[in-house]
Write a structure and sequence with these properties.
Length: 166
C-alpha cells in the first residue's frame, strides 16, 4: 500500500503516529510496516525492544493496544520537561537556563507569545511558547524584557523634517 497526498508526509515521520492504530485489532509485521510506511525489519526490532507478542505462533501478531502503548512509551522517554526559568535548546537537545538568565517576550497574539533567549553553551536561539497568564509562574529567576513597538509616524506630535505630511 503506497500512500499519496497529505497522508504520505504524516506517515513518513521519524516518530510513527500511534493514533493511526486501531486498539481492538491485531496486527502482523507487514501490516504495521505498511501502516507507518516503514521497513519490516524496523517492526521486528520493535518486538526485540519490548513490543508484546500475541502468542509464540506464526505469523507474528500483536494487539493494537500493545502497539499503542509501546509507541507512547518510546515517545514519552525522549521528552524533556523544562523547569522554572528553563528553555529547550534544540541544538543541545536539553532544557537549559538562558545565558545571563535573560529572555525577550515576543507577542504572537494578545494572549500568547514566545520567550526568546540565547543558549549559554552553543549560542543558538532558544524559544518557548507561553501564555501571558503563565509568565510569572514559569519565569523562575529569569529576567524577561518586553520590547516596545516602534512608534508610528502618525502618532508623533512633531513629524521629522524629511516627511511630506502637512
Amino acid at each position: 500500500m503506497s500512500l499519496r497526498g497529505p497522508n504520505a508526509v504524516r506517515a513518513r515521520k521519524r516518530h510513527p503516529n500511534h493514533r493511526l492504530v486501531k486498539s481492538h485489532r491485531s496486527y502482523a509485521v507487514g501490516e504495521i510496516a505498511s501502516l507507518f510506511n516503514i521497513h519490516k525489519n524496523t517492526v521486528r526490532r520493535w518486538f526485540k525492544a519490548g513490543l508484546q507478542l500475541l502468542d509464540d505462533r506464526r505469523p507474528v501478531l500483536t494487539l493494537g493496544r500493545n502497539l499503542i502503548a509501546f509507541l507512547q512509551s518510546r515517545s514519552a522517554g525522549k521528552k524533556h520537561h523544562c523547569g522554572l526559568g528553563q528553555m529547550y535548546c534544540v541544538r543541545c537537545r536539553l532544557p537549559k537556563f538562558p545565558a545571563a538568565r535573560m529572555a525577550d517576550y515576543l507577542p504572537v497574539t494578545e494572549k500568547v507569545g514566545n520567550l526568546a533567549a540565547i543558549c549559554p553553551d552553543c549560542g543558538s536561539m532558544m524559544y518557548r511558547c507561553i501564555s501571558n497568564a503563565r509568565i510569572q509562574e514559569v519565569r523562575g529567576e529569569m529576567d524577561i524584557t518586553f520590547p516596545q513597538a516602534l512608534r508610528q509616524l502618525g502618532e508623533i506630535s512633531r513629524p521629522t523634517v524629511n516627511s511630506d505630511l502637512k
